[in-house]
Every structure is written in structure tokens, then in C-alpha cells.
From TrEMBL:
InterPro entries associated with the record: CheY-like_superfamily, Sig_transdc_resp-reg_C-effctor, Tscrpt_reg_LuxR_C, WH-like_DNA-bd_sf
Record keyword Transcription regulation present: yes
Protein name (record): Response regulator containing a CheY-like receiver domain and an HTH DNA-binding domain
GO molecular function: DNA binding
Annotated coiled-coil segments of the chain: none
Keyword Transcription in record: yes
GO biological process: regulation of DNA-templated transcription
SMART domains for the chain: HTH_LUXR
Domain HTH luxR-type residues, every copy: 155-220
Keywords per UniProt: DNA-binding, Transcription, Transcription regulation
């Protein structure tokens, strides 16, 4: 996979990530010390990191003690599993965002991760930084292998078709943008964005943004890769 074209966008991504992580706390639980070391070298992460571990029990003790905003965990750990840690974290405090780094796009793994409440699933061959940015920002990072599993569920169509503008807003919700940031990108007022979100909820018959995004992915209405490609980050 040639990722050379992504290099020019890294400085902007780091600026945006620092803005998102400001005021948040992060716990990392990764199998290998080299992964932990690389993770801790990301400047915006350094400022938010409150704990790091390599086993499930160590990771959960950190989560219990620190109650972080975000948990980044690998599928495999030196002891225990990342999926179990995600499940325990979800049971402890559903407000903690979870990003799972998985070995591969195994369908059974994806189903387990979804069932246990992962907010994002990043495969080792995927793009970690965009995944971190989306999940930390409150979005849902479900790349194509995850979307494919969701689409296998019985489709539930909206009670009324979404407008093109509403689908654009949904893409931004998936990426974790606030109403204010969406209004900047669409050059409309935050109130207009809130109206779009209200209509989306009504049409999809959901009561929060996460449910709206997951239901829309399952119905094939939105796509993570297309949303990431289309978006020009706002850094101001």
C-alpha cells in the first residue's frame, strides 16, 4: 500500500488531533512495547496520555483509576484480550471512547467488536491517525470491512429519504465533527446544522448520533472512506 500521497496532510492532521485531544485523557493498552513507544511519540497524544499498559488487567486497572476519555487497545495483549478489555470498559463507563487495533479484517472479530461496543476498529494495514482523530472527536470509525458486516444485517430504510445535504451532515457526524465545525465546513449557521441533525434523527428513527451513523452505514447511505477523502480539515 503506497501512502506517499498522505504525507503532505500529516501536519494538518496533527494540528487537528491536538485540538481534539485538548482536555481529553487517554489510556493505551498495546501488546508490544514498540507500539506503545511509537504511540507515545505522537506529540498530541503525549499531552493526553494518563496511562499505558500491555496486559488486560493492567489496562483495566488504569481505566478504573483514571476514567479516561479514550481507550486505545490492540486486539492481542501480552495477557488477556483487547476485546475483553473493551467489553469491561463499556460496562464500567459507556462514555469512554474505545478504538481497537485489530490484526486483520476477520468477520467474526468484527462482529465481536461491534457487539462489545467499539467506537472504532482500525486494522493494522489501515490508517491509525485518521482512526484516532475520528474516535477521539466522538465519531465512529468503521472502515469497509466493518461496514460490509453491518450491511449483512436486514436493511432498515429511513421512513423518509434523506436529502443530499442531510447525507453530507451524516458524513461529518461519522467523522466526529461538532455542530460548530460542521457549520464552518458547510458555511451555514450552527442552528441550521442542528435542524439537519433533528431531521436525520426523525427520518432514521434514532435518538443519538452514534445510532444514526451506525444505521446509515448498515443501510449503505454513508461510507467512511468516501467521507475521509472528501473532507478538507478545518484547522482554525
Amino acid at each position: 500500500m503506497d501512502l506517499t500521497d498522505l504525507i503532505p496532510g500529516i501536519p494538518t492532521l496533527l494540528v487537528e488531533l491536538e485540538d481534539i485531544l485538548a482536555g481529553l485523557t487517554t489510556v493505551a493498552c498495546l501488546e508490544h512495547m514498540k507500539w506503545l513507544g511509537a504511540f507515545m511519540c505522537i506529540t498530541p497524544v503525549q499531552k493526553s496520555l494518563v496511562g499505558a499498559a500491555t496486559t488486560e488487567e493492567e489496562g483495566f486497572r488504569l481505566v478504573e483509576r483514571q476514567r479516561p476519555s479514550l481507550l486505545v487497545v490492540s486486539q492481542r495483549l501480552q495477557e488477556g484480550t483487547g476485546l475483553s478489555l473493551v467489553e469491561r470498559t463499556e460496562a464500567l463507563d459507556p462514555a469512554i471512547r474505545t478504538l481497537l487495533i485489530a490484526d486483520d479484517a476477520n468477520e467474526d472479530l468484527v462482529r465481536e467488536a461491534l457487539a462489545r461496543g467499539c467506537n472504532g476498529i482500525c486494522f493494522e494495514s489501515g490508517l491509525f491517525m485518521p482512526a484516532l482523530r475520528v474516535v477521539a472527536g466522538g465519531g465512529i470509525y468503521y472502515p469497509e470491512p466493518v461496514a460490509a458486516v453491518l450491511r449483512q444485517q436486514p436493511p432498515v430504510a429511513p421512513i423518509e429519504p434523506l436529502t443530499e445535504r442531510e447525507r453530507v451532515v451524516l458524513n461529518h457526524l461519522m467523522l466526529g465533527l461538532t455542530d460548530q465545525r460542521i457549520s464552518q465546513e458547510l458555511v451555514v449557521s450552527p442552528e441550521t446544522v442542528r435542524t439537519h441533525v433533528k431531521h436525520i434523527f426523525q427520518k432514521l428513527q434514532v435518538d443519538n448520533r452514534t445510532k444514526a451513523v451506525v444505521k446509515s452505514i448498515a443501510a449503505g447511505l454513508i461510507n467512511l472512506e468516501s467521507a475521509l477523502e472528501a473532507r478538507t480539515p478545518v484547522t482554525g
